[in-house]
Give the backbone structure.
Amino acid sequence: MKALLIAFDPSELEPLARFGAALGAPFDVLLLTGSADDGYGASEMLLAGLATVPPADGLAKGIASVAEGYTHVAAAASMRSKDVMPRVAVLLDAGMVTDAIAVLDGKTFQRPIVAGSVIATVTVETERVALTVRTSAFDPATPTGSANKRSVALYCPTAVARTSAESQASGGRPDLTQAKVVVSGGRPLKDAGTFEKLIGGLADALGGGVGATRAAVDSGIAPNEAQVGQTGKIVAPELYIAAGVSGSTQHLAGMKDSKCIVAINTDGDAPIFEVADFGLVEDLYTAIPALMERLRP
Amino acid sequence: MKIMVPIKRVVDPYAKVKALPDGTGLDTGGAKFEINPFDEIALEEAVRKREADPSVQIVAVSIGSSSCEDQLRKALAMGADEAILIESDAEWDSPSVAAELAALAKELAPDLVLMGKQATDDDNNQAAQMLAALLDWPQATFASKLDLAGGRATVARETDTGEEVLEMALPCVVTTDLRLNEPRYIALPGIIKARSKPLAKRPPTTEPRLRTRTVRLDAPPTRPPGRKVGSVDELVSELKARGVVA
Ligand SMILES: Cc1cc2nc3c(=O)[nH]c(=O)nc-3n(C[C@H](O)[C@H](O)[C@H](O)COP(=O)(O)OP(=O)(O)OC[C@H]3O[C@@H](n4cnc5c(N)ncnc54)[C@H](O)[C@@H]3O)c2cc1C
């Protein structure tokens, strides 16, 4: 067994190495953009040196061209990895596991299905395995110092033109999926300004990221990249504060593995309280300003 | 212009689904089955394209048991022109579905395959990208806006950090995200009225070759019960005691 871990940028190196360690096989890392020194246990770091991530049709070909000698090809679960990895799986004739959360052996993995209501144990029947991995489900990796490095030229022929560049993460806040604290707001936030003032304000007081429910995103009060849940981002921070969030199965799917969950909701029977370590039955319009007041550094 | 819309029959996404105690299957509690919500968004988008351009032709396709006919009837009621049920009681994983859809795409030669980004039952998010790879077509996943003009697709798509716009020649594969549109409501009479629209049933042209197998289903770990606090002050002192805030 030997794995190739696909890092889109250097921030994914440590999270991916967690999976490498859990797999218990030697691994190389293919770093698509940027450069880094520490490989967190990688035998070799392949540096593609791409300026931007190419569209999936081209990128899949590029990745497949360097993946020949590996039994496993894995990327951290994200929208960009889910865009390309199924194409890579086809090119390598690999069985694919989406959102792996546990390794039972080199061919057997666990993953959540039906919005996290059920954990499926899946075996891969093909020689090669492709995966996207929820890295927050694995133990942190330790730095191992300078890795062996080699440049690789990825040929990524694409039939797609990107006519407007990807927007950049907003407001200098930490990336939701890697933040230690996430503050999320739901439907009762009146408008985008109120959402930003209360949810954004509390997040800033805690140095955290901002999340939202689908209801908040659909009504335009929160940006789409803030959606947490079955069909949005999956987060597992040290502290998750849900304000005005009812706790639908679809939302819980994205946050119930957080270490400490706080729910603020006027309805004491809201399902969110079933997963909350600490529940506060109070109007968020009074509770959040009071919290900001006490928690501001 | 021909748009092919694959439809998956899934358990009602709002139903409470559990693993059976012996781990061999799902307990859906007698819930209804529906069109996968993302596929419904795909169908709605296709119908809107046809409303803007009557030459658009919509073929809805489903692979599965005879009961998938219910979802295809609903697709016809929403506005699909014809439906094809690829009847099979076998198990189909995403790569097998993609292979069968690829064979069908070669036969029907659609300009666009418009499908859901994921199914709400297996949450796989694989079939469309695999189909695009098998056909060597360009793709745009997670679409929040789709324009078709001059033999090209312009797609605004959701990304991890916001949005980007991709442009590509047809034919291509596009997958839908939640904010592409809000599907119209179809009442039962509409579904009955669509009974005269063509629904063809036929066997698959490929054999499902399972690359993955589900061997067990379990309940997720439960969280230890939490408690309600009486005030913001009490909450803050609990959080400090836990060391999660400074
Ligand atoms: C296919 C599909 C995919 C989905 N994917 C996702 C997903 O990824 N993420 C997601 O979040 N949802 C998703 N949903 C939607 C999900 O089912 C819920 O509709 C949504 O999560 C509800 O959002 P909410 O909690 O903000 O709103 P609501 O359910 O309306 O809850 C609002 C809550 O706020 C409380 N409240 C009201 N006023 C106040 C106040 N002043 N102070 C404090 N509390 C107050 C209420 O008591 C209530 O509990 C999906 C649905 C489908 C069908």
